[in-house]
## 1
Amino acid sequence: MNLRTLRYLVALERHRHFGHAADACFVSQPTLSAQIKKLEEELGVQLVERRHRKVLLTPVGAEVARRAARILQEADEVVELARSQQDPMAGQVRLGLIPTLAPYLLPHVVKPLKKKYPELRCLLYEFQTLVLLERLDRGELDAAVLALPVPLDGLEHFELFDEPFLAALAHDHPRANARSLTLDALRGETLLLLDDGHCLRDQALEVCSRIDVHEYHDLRATSLETLRQMVGAGLGVTLLPALAQRADDAVQTVPLVPQPTRTIAMVWRESNPRGTTLSLLAEAIRETMAPQITAWGGRAA
């Protein structure tokens, strides 16, 4: 048994297909299949149920794969620990972000981070909050940037900034040219929201829970840009995070008073040996965003 073979098994459990697992491991399908067979012979149990088009792991195979993932995570952390002792701000960091933040935050921070830490290579991924936390727990991500609150058991967290919400209205809405709006001004409006699974949906519902708004159940967006188009078409109003606002002839954003916000934070496993690297990275993001936070009239988290 070796780490390489365990990686093959974990990839097979994830992809449920020999060809796809082999591609993910950068080996040929016969090589991966032969190594899985060899592992079964070594352990004396059947790990994989082979079907014509689909692969299933047996109950013992699934448990072996689960434990193998933990072993691989520990092994990877040993390597990262050694690297971090040489230069904490060099090497690779796998960073995940929520979809309602990634396209709007990254243009502000990628170049400054590259300039500040030229030897640090950030691999960027975009997933909804629950998927980010699952991948973080499995060791597939080093850190995640998301909106609080989330379960923080076993996680370090570094608050980056508080991001305001703005009311987004069609350009011909009677209140589109207001300097600011209270939530009560949206009473009776049709509220457009993202689909289930997006934390922004829950945050918008929480903000609007005090007033009588009617959610448009027949139409839900899968992205902020789709949501923006729906608002521009006059289907209703929504709340947009401040970073997502932009010049748009069809949509007008108006500040809310009092100002609702969401807290953006970076989280990572307490056991991650590159905690120093991730702390410094989080600090750099917060420093880079400081001018934007000041422009909002807000504060660093």
Note: The first helix runs from residue 3 to 15.
## 2
Amino acid sequence: MMTLRQFSHKPETIPASTSWYLADLGEAHGKQELFTKQAPQKLNVLKEHALIESAVSSNRIEGVTVDEARIRPIILGKPHLRDRNEEEVRGYRNALKLIHEQGVKMPVSGETILKLHRLTRGEIWDAGHYKEKDGDIIERYPDGRERVRFKTVSAARTPAFMADLMGMWENGLKEKWVHPLILLAAFNLDFLCIHPFRDGNGRVSRLLLLLQLYHLGYEVGRYISIERIIEQSKDRYYETLEQSSQGWHEGKHDPWPYINYVLYTLKVAYREFEDRVGQIKGPRGAKTELIITAVDAFPGEFTLSDLERACPGTSRDMVRRVLRNLQKMRKVECLGRGPGALWRKKDNTLKKG
């Protein structure tokens, strides 16, 4: 809660870049209702896709992966789970559904945080419990060297720090210390610095981000996977988190790199939401447009497997069919043979329609 404590004194200035992000997000928020009411039945495809992407990406950031062929049944069906990784992906899906369905009614409380952790961690022994032993964040190098990247709050002090964090969140909203989106990003930074759990801190932090966005009236996470955007920019995520955590214990840290990263992520999500709503012509064509959007996002060459990973829950046959159509339209070209062949766009941006 060291970041929120800084903001309790109401900073005199806010970086210009932060102000620009807030202005853009204010405009996007103003359009939100218009987009969500245009064709609600067509947005169901976006909701389903975001659910799949979020469960997969948030776990993959932490090194938890599952067989691509199993993604859709694990998240949307009820198959027998084969291993621990599948259990964690299903658990994250359950936590997402809870927030999507009841988020506005769920308080940002210790009980809620422990419940989200319990859902994401499944049947493991410490699911739903704060850490019992101290544990720093260690960075390990390929040559075997390691360093302490950040010293987290001790296990003994964690419950008190978490209680303070939630109390300051409520006070910050009531007393309007700063813009609520700045407060949200500050809360997220403090949560990650406290590191209240033995494992699963990153995943719970992303769930809390979604929950708090719902409380503030920002619902883009229902249609666009914020977790997937974070995964795609995870180098920047880790870099800004490290920058903003230096000096955190003493309250002498600079929170703005990480705050701006969170705001940037939300801006990307809203921009993508507007783009995708504009592309969807009807329920039958929605997945085709999602695949085209994924192709458009590749900066260079890509493989069929790369495209499948970018569109979890979409069948291989569907991906191949869209690629063939784009090839016939001379918008992409194949540079080889077989499933591992490289593909590339013939233009910088695909022309939709």
Note: The chain has two domains: 2-279, 283-345.
## 3
Amino acid sequence: MNLNELTIKQARPKLDSGEITARELTAACLNQIEKADPAIRSCLSVCAPEALREAEAADKRMKAGEKGGLLGIPYLCKDNIMAEGLLTTAASKMIENYRAPYDATVIKRLKKAGAILLGKTNLDEFAHGASTENSAYGPTKNPRDLSRVPGGSSGGSAAAVASDMCLFALGSDTGGSIRYPASFCGVFGLKPSYGRVSRFGLLSMTSSTDVIGPLAKTAYDAAAVLQVIAGSDKQDATTAPEAVENYLEKVSDVKDLNGLTVGWPKEYFLTELDARVAERIREAAKKLQAAGATLKEVSLPYTKYGIPVYYIITPSEISSNLARFDGIGWGLAKNDALNLQEFYKHSRGAGFGPEAKRRIMLGTYVLSAGYYDAYYKKAQAVRTLIIRDFAEAFKKVDLLLTPTAPHPAFKIGEHIDDPLAMYLEDIFVTGASLAGLPAISVPAGLVESAGGDPLPIGAQIIGPRLAEGLVLKAAKILE
């Protein structure tokens, strides 16, 4: 096995014992990036010299007797998360030359733990999309089949983990953007509860649902990363004050799920669901039952409103959050204007891509006088009903099992001219985001594809708020 193919759990004792060094592990990942990324295009930037220096510093810490955690573990980070001194482009021409003046809280915590940042990964521009085709720097390709999308918006991070360019990656999930690409690429993708991980230093998309989380090779690895990045933060007033669980303990010696009841939401198993996906989720349910869990059908009647609610609230918050990119305080400046109004139009027109413009226009319309009550206010009311659906379900069951995506990865370009079809891709992942609940996509096997290699399928496990430990425990059983 090449060093870059190791999991965090496999690498940890090798690093602690001195069998391998952090520099060797980092070099192996950098070599894999150099070898594989020209075809996959996961990375927007690679900081090799800095990474090797950080690796040498980690080796010194280990020689001095420090052990454990993520010390010496190389990772990649989605390029909408600030890392001091590095380009943070959000895959947009609007801020293509922006260098972050400070570290996001998650980056600061990973640095303190001794994790080694290799570079920044591709995404849909400002995280607007489900395929990583909306990047201003071109699409990322699925390492399982280069003719297909990796999912989005954290497609670069998911593809990097799936192709062993790093031992884990950070992504952000607003309405499925960690879980969806995890499903398409066959890796673990964890969206923590809203507020469990600080958003400080994340370029805001939808402030009421944005969450940073890990993409990893195993449930244990996802738990190891969450253990470091979770917790309250004075710089983010939305972080949860509750103490962080011992996630590693939850996944270390999982033998059964005796006493747990897993809900099977009937609204997630529609006739439109790909039959191959439905079969894999049924197999996942049997695994949970074999481990001692009880399966129970539940109803989430407001599920059908998840997509329309999400695509009213999200463009509205995007319109507000992207207003700061005006070419003066932030962003591309086009100096060919005769007045301020023209300057804004030229700068924002040249800086934003088609999907960002579409969402800005939708959100601005929804928030405009005369429409706010009819659309935004109504959507927030229905969101409350979706939250109540989950609350009622969790009175009867401990966890929910659903598909992550309605089908395997689709071809690059297949939906690019049909925005509505792309929005419908989020059908199974928006609910947990709107309710602020923890959810993980777990690899659930492969399905045959026409004229290509078998494609991964993801099973989604959703838990009550701040029940990441329980979610990870069930994910470990499916693993």
Note: DSSP finds 16 helices and eleven strands in the chain.
